[in-house]
Amino acid sequence: MSLPAGTLNESWEERIDAEDSILWTCRDPKVRRVLRLISRRPILVKQKAAGIPKEYRAARLSTWDESKSNPYTSSIVRAYVQQPSHSLFLTGPVGTGKTWAMCCIGNELLGRGRVVKFIGVTDLLMRIRHSFASESGSELQVLEPFFDAEFLLLDELGDVCLDRDRKASDFAASRLLLLLDKRFQTGKPTLLTSNQDLQGFTEWVGDERVSSRIRGTCGAEGIIELEGRDLRFDAVPQESGVE
Ligand SMILES: Nc1ncnc2c1ncn2[C@@H]1O[C@H](COP(=O)(O)OP(=O)(O)O)[C@@H](O)[C@H]1O
Ligand SMILES: [Mg+2]
Question: What domains can you pick out in the chain, each with its CATH number?
Answer without folding.
Answer: 11-40 (no CATH), 42-228 (3.40.50.300)
